[in-house]
Amino acid sequence: MDKIKVPAEPDGKRFQDHWRTCVGTGRLGLALQKEYLDHLSVIQREIGFKYIRGHGLFHDDIGIYREDRVDGRSRPFYNFMYIDRIFDSFLERGIRPFVELGFMPSKLSTGENKVFYWEGNTTPPTDYDKWANLIKAVILHFIDRYGLDEVLKWPFEVWNEPNLPGFWQNADMGEYCKLYEVTARAVKEVNPDLKVGGPAICGGADHWIVEFLSFCHDQKVPLDFVTRHAYTSKQPEVTPHFYYQELYENTYMLEEFKSVREIIDRSPMGKLPFHITEYNTSWHPLNPVHDTVLNAAYLCRILSEGGDYVDSFSYWTFSDVFEECDVPRSQFHGGFGLIALNGIPKPTFHVFKFFKKAEGDILFRDERTLVTRKKDGAIAVLAWNEVMDKGDDFQRELALEIPVEYATVFMKRSTISEQYGNPWRSWIQMGRPRFSSKQAVETLKQVARPLVTTGRLESENGYIRLITTLTKNEVSLFEFSQIHDESHTYIGLDDSKITSY
Amino acid sequence: MDKIKVPAEPDGKRFQDHWRTCVGTGRLGLALQKEYLDHLSVIQREIGFKYIRGHGLFHDDIGIYREDRVDGRSRPFYNFMYIDRIFDSFLERGIRPFVELGFMPSKLSTGENKVFYWEGNTTPPTDYDKWANLIKAVILHFIDRYGLDEVLKWPFEVWNEPNLPGFWQNADMGEYCKLYEVTARAVKEVNPDLKVGGPAICGGADHWIVEFLSFCHDQKVPLDFVTRHAYTSKQPEVTPHFYYQELYENTYMLEEFKSVREIIDRSPMGKLPFHITEYNTSWHPLNPVHDTVLNAAYLCRILSEGGDYVDSFSYWTFSDVFEECDVPRSQFHGGFGLIALNGIPKPTFHVFKFFKKAEGDILFRDERTLVTRKKDGAIAVLAWNEVMDKGDDFQRELALEIPVEYATVFMKRSTISEQYGNPWRSWIQMGRPRFSSKQAVETLKQVARPLVTTGRLESENGYIRLITTLTKNEVSLFEFSQIHDESHTYIGLDDSKITSY
Amino acid sequence: MDKIKVPAEPDGKRFQDHWRTCVGTGRLGLALQKEYLDHLSVIQREIGFKYIRGHGLFHDDIGIYREDRVDGRSRPFYNFMYIDRIFDSFLERGIRPFVELGFMPSKLSTGENKVFYWEGNTTPPTDYDKWANLIKAVILHFIDRYGLDEVLKWPFEVWNEPNLPGFWQNADMGEYCKLYEVTARAVKEVNPDLKVGGPAICGGADHWIVEFLSFCHDQKVPLDFVTRHAYTSKQPEVTPHFYYQELYENTYMLEEFKSVREIIDRSPMGKLPFHITEYNTSWHPLNPVHDTVLNAAYLCRILSEGGDYVDSFSYWTFSDVFEECDVPRSQFHGGFGLIALNGIPKPTFHVFKFFKKAEGDILFRDERTLVTRKKDGAIAVLAWNEVMDKGDDFQRELALEIPVEYATVFMKRSTISEQYGNPWRSWIQMGRPRFSSKQAVETLKQVARPLVTTGRLESENGYIRLITTLTKNEVSLFEFSQIHDESHTYIGLDDSKITSY
Amino acid sequence: MDKIKVPAEPDGKRFQDHWRTCVGTGRLGLALQKEYLDHLSVIQREIGFKYIRGHGLFHDDIGIYREDRVDGRSRPFYNFMYIDRIFDSFLERGIRPFVELGFMPSKLSTGENKVFYWEGNTTPPTDYDKWANLIKAVILHFIDRYGLDEVLKWPFEVWNEPNLPGFWQNADMGEYCKLYEVTARAVKEVNPDLKVGGPAICGGADHWIVEFLSFCHDQKVPLDFVTRHAYTSKQPEVTPHFYYQELYENTYMLEEFKSVREIIDRSPMGKLPFHITEYNTSWHPLNPVHDTVLNAAYLCRILSEGGDYVDSFSYWTFSDVFEECDVPRSQFHGGFGLIALNGIPKPTFHVFKFFKKAEGDILFRDERTLVTRKKDGAIAVLAWNEVMDKGDDFQRELALEIPVEYATVFMKRSTISEQYGNPWRSWIQMGRPRFSSKQAVETLKQVARPLVTTGRLESENGYIRLITTLTKNEVSLFEFSQIHDESHTYIGLDDSKITSY
Predict the structure, then answer these.
(1) Domains and CATH numbers, chain C
(2) Residues of A labelled catalytic
(3) Which residues of C touch A68 (CB under 8 A)?
(4) Predicted ipTM?
(5) For each successive 10 residues of chain D (501 residues), what is the average pLDDT?
(6) Cis bond leading into B317, ω under 30°?
(7) Looking at the complex, does the CB of residue C71 fall below 8 Å from at least one CB of chain B?
(8) Residue of chain A with shortest Cα separation from C489
(9) Is C161 part of the annotated catalytic residue set?
(10) Count of beta carbons in the 10 Å neighbourhood of residue C397
(11) In chain B, which residues have their Cβ closer than 8 Å to the Cβ of D70?
(12) What whole-number distance in Å separates Cα of residue D442 and Cα of residue C106?
């Protein structure tokens, strides 16, 4: 039994909403699709991220960089038709691009090093001047279309995970530093107030950060923020359909946030903003863990505490509209998305909604609990019971004493668990149909909702007491608000006069 | 324990959807309102009635009948501005008017006999020729606007509950017969294929039907269908806010359907169609029973069996947008609506949805159970546990053996009960706030949903066995469908490789 | 020929958008209707007023004030069900209420003095304490629902046109001062920062303003702003269907704005804000002038200059969804609306859109011309040719020299005139059908659009020259913007290689 | 001067709407895009085609055909995720697929013969059994998802333009016959009532049709319909940006329709249905003629008469969302679409709308005029003035005598011409901006509308007389309908009492 007596006053720490600053997306070219945009509309209406980040700005499908033969010579042609449509779609939905500058257009590429089903080219440019011109042309166009005030709010990040040979030929750090320098100087040439950063590495290579910071410092290369990724999955077991991986504890990720934060603070560049531009449990889009309730419960602590260390951390990704491992082959397939195909929210989606509802001053926080209070006195308790062990017997008993300033309290409880808000489980019962019928979609949407129940409590000596149980991997949000009872205004009210009551 | 072995073959009786033929509405003038139309859109998308019937076609707020002074004389002016907008709105939402011809325009009225907060005038016309001209002008306009083919599908019913003095001055049967005759002849003068009927009486006065049928027969007055209302509430206890009434058993209503059906069949007019143009538990719009789960459970048997006796029965009404007793004074107030104000569905709404899902051949039916099968072999079990006694201990234990032609079965259970799908209960917990905040509306919509759970069963010897419990007043719909299991197509599938599973 | 050489620099005066601060509406109860809200959505998307003002807040149809018998005594009951829905609808569409406090609820009224088809009661209250309690209850509810910050932005105006006996029994100024004082003190009792004003008189009675200001000053009655109405129509000729009135010159209204402004400034209350809370040509809702192009051309000068004198002037009204003279009897009927029934914009609607497009620094302005420049250098010329004489020969020749900073100019001309953007004329050709078929609505919407044409000009010595003709009652908006010609980037471009070109 | 006296009775020929049976689309993969679907929604609401046909069903981007390594062997995997989404989108918009079976999935292809920017593989399959299995699997899936009744309405066409080496390796007729036979037999194996056809050749190779029909006859290969394409452009002149081509007269295409119709009728296969599954002026998507008014005027005769010869002819294509020559590089670029990027309708779009409005019995038809009458007596005159010569002086004077059965006639004229409904012209004036700003899109949409004017005519001796002028390349639709004048019902009506009138 977890016994918690919540203090009546906050400890001064506000709950940081840095978990809501940015979210990841499949390659930008997918943002032309209707299903993608339908999902993004839901995400923005229900959660409301501030930025969106994805690969593929310069990939051939968006077609920004082309070359024409004119008078026998090759000449660059910049085509903004699709990227305008994409960024318009983002801004119309209240979300700004966190611009990743990459990968390499075929026409500028020096080789066949490619990544993903969609074959992003990850080689250095044939000509760094042409690359710089591309960067400048693109940003100038953004300013022309959206205005300087708007574009000054867009961070520009140079490339993605250059420490992996798939993403950057030979994982060549020297070449990356060159790319970074050329790019950063091109950005600043357009306007010195634009923000540029890197090195966008994945975990396990933090010496890159040390050396990259030194490089920028020594060479006086502009650097406005530092970026890195974070995943907590171990070595994979691969089947043709799935990528299975065990997970580390979620503290593993928080430790990474913290240690890199310290690396930056100790560096000659000083206290630069630090953005986790990708994180999730597994880094593979065919890992079924993403569809589970465990994924949701596991992330709670990270959402609760991550903002203490980093300026943003960006869940990878908002939707299963995603093609890094080919067109998805089934309704559920282990994709990263908060929303599965056909618009079905996963448990992790609801955890994000719960955290949004829980914004306020922190009254209490531990590794499985967060209690906050809003200005109007409403209190939110977010409690989770993440269990990485197999088996069913892992209930969490919880006894809370919560300070309230009012006598009568309305309680609303929203729950996701193995039983509720878990469409993956119903889909398994259905026999894992690959291509959902309309009827199946309807059922999956219904079971994807959290269970919502309500109640009424009386406070005693300024406290209400809540004793409750969380089943395995359950996440429950309890919202407490004052009741202004109006029952006495109904003259002659008497429910017992109703048949059956 | 109810033990039921469902036969493998239907008994030949199809489940009649006459419960879905028509639905009632507040006075037609309310159909100009946005909230009304929003509710109607939901109703039509989720249930899909064929007709809608309400009072007030000739009420002054719609303004059809006016008189002008021209050259010192009074001349009728027919204004179709609003009725066109209203009927357009109905037809755009896939529902046709079941036209009630009434009440009396002020300019044609002979007195101050009025009904409802909105003061419908219920006196005979000053001049029956003017009334007949009005009827003809209106129907000719309908034909002009919507085409004859369309209007031939609209039943025309003469007046409403003339057997009550509030609705028809002195409840004068002779005067009603006159009104009916003039009206019916006017309708047929426009086109002899148009359908006209009456007498739209409330219960407790079936001698009106006997005499009305004789009258029509003897006077050779056209009559295409017979109409009557049916409610099951006893004498009221009135408080300033509410109208409390005990209910008769629901068989009371089925008996009424049956006995009037017989009256008609035995009459000299013969086997005319018989429409119940209003029914509900209570006939009062401030009776809290309408908001309860009991109301939903209680009606199940009527929906299940009513269609055996009558050609339609029209639930009174689809929405709490209703003003017979003044502007509603609170979120829940005992209104008739399937949908409460602010778009919150009540338990009875879901029962209608459940019955729609249960359409098919009847395999089994008793007073608390309906089992049907669709052409594709899918089976629906609708079970209810209506309890009119007070207290909590009235569970219904149910053991079903259901014949299926397939080995593995997906089960979807949708439940409303005192605990789930019951926004009235949460609203009471909130302290019965009269005017819902947006936050309250959000919560009430969430708790208004049925609980949906799913499962998987294996058949044995051509049967699946379901043992389950229904709590007090619970209504559960069980949908069983064949599973085409595709799990084997996922090569290397093994959920146990996922952390926690 | 009007020859105008537009100066290159503004004279320091900004074009005031006070014409866009507020707009009038039919009684608030109509705001429950779908058609009303559809029109308001269009108005807000295309023009975007800040406030909306209409009668009938306390009219019985919204039902705010009721009385219950409790223990043998009458007790007030405040019902906010409908007003919440109405104000929610306004705020969702980005428009705030300019709250008119009136008329009298039946239950509080002292007589049968009524106004309009909808019978607004215009008598003093039976009990000024009950009235004050009503005011306080209503405003407290608004603050509870919308927050104090929001409600502090809502002006509260006391009553409407008390100088007319139809609107205030006996047009009793002393009684109005009493009503004002009680009301203003009640408002300030809720919160002293709330804004309250009056006397909302119609024209022709400005001694009311003088005396009202003295009264407030002498009695230390709170007064935050002064309100008055303005119409320019002469004595009517009334037919059963229409109200015909000749118009004064439009300068008549501007003179009124100016003279009342001076009355206020000279008063002991000093330079209070001054709002024209209603204006139009005719004050009657069955005057066909409202449907004409003359109405649009006539108002241009008022929109152009009115803001120099008053803090807002509120066009009466945005929509023909209006019932002061009964339910409208035909598609066009002389209603006030910017938008006619069935969503058809009138010429005056487009003039409002044109003025919105013309916002910027004034470069030139005379009685039939307005030239402005935006920050990006784009120039708008709004020219009109209002002609009050009958007959067709009243063209206006116009020669403009317009300073531009760029060589090549794109011109977009938007025109309404007797020929274009004039659905009333097409409707007359159709034979004035009262109740539009869907086909007629489609045609009327098509002809209701302004004619839009485009062109290209070259500047010479920093000027472009525009010589053009305006037909009778034409209003044309010319928008000039810089061309960044990209034709040279199309390699091998040659239109003459296209067949026919 | 064209003097035309329209006969009072039809000649028995109904105007065929075969022009509306089918429309072309860019490759099916583009149907995932929001902009594509937005355009399709407009097309279906405004015109309403019955079928849609495009390339790329088996292209890798839709991902239907994949292969897995299982137990060391390759095994086909059919992925219907995207094609379900695409066909759902079609059916939701009321349009059915006219299914083109092609091109070759990479995994089944025998070479690198590819077509278009998007690299459709146009080689024979590695294994005709695998191909047949693919065909069967796909159609079985369609039947499973949409029902047999639905899929029986979908024609299946084998491949596209096999007579061109780009589209079919070596344009090998023998190989095509093999492909056709295997495919047709596979289709019929699924269900013998499914419809299959070919050979989908382009013009200039009609011996293919002769030989293909003989082949099917001799080999008893199922063939339900014959397909061919038709374009009227001559040899191109190519610049890096555009493809310029002179056009043949439009009778060239009608002759083709006719002659191939005769080939089929004379063949041993007999009177098979004949579908033109693609037609347009130019066959190149970078030919500016598609954006012009000439294109619209030119096609009128083909729309007017084409249906006399063929069972359908399918305009290639409905939208400029199209990628055969790379991502479009500018707002207008000579694309095939009826709708340009950013939702701007082209003149040809309006011609299709005009023809839809003109449906009825033919009263008169010549090479530049079509007169029809609807059942309700409404008459449509569609007149065009297609001019292939350069220069401006090509007005068409037209004097029509039109028989009407009513005295007073309402005329609605809708016009597109070089001046009206011509966004391409305004865009040229703007300096051909490649990537339209929102402001430019707004202007282009406004100028893209036809000019609509109205009038009123009196008939004399049963005829109305219309004398009018058509400017170069103008297309005008005149709609005449009876006026039921209601002016006399407005008592006291007198417009001269309105100021200015």
Answers:
(1) 2-10+361-484 (2.60.40.1500), 18-357 (3.20.20.80)
(2) 161, 278
(3) 491
(4) 0.96
(5) 92 85 98 98 98 98 95 93 98 98 97 97 98 98 98 98 97 98 98 98 96 97 98 92 95 97 95 97 97 98 97 98 97 98 98 96 96 94 97 94 95 98 98 98 98 97 96 98 96 94 94
(6) yes
(7) no
(8) A77
(9) yes
(10) 12
(11) 491
(12) 50
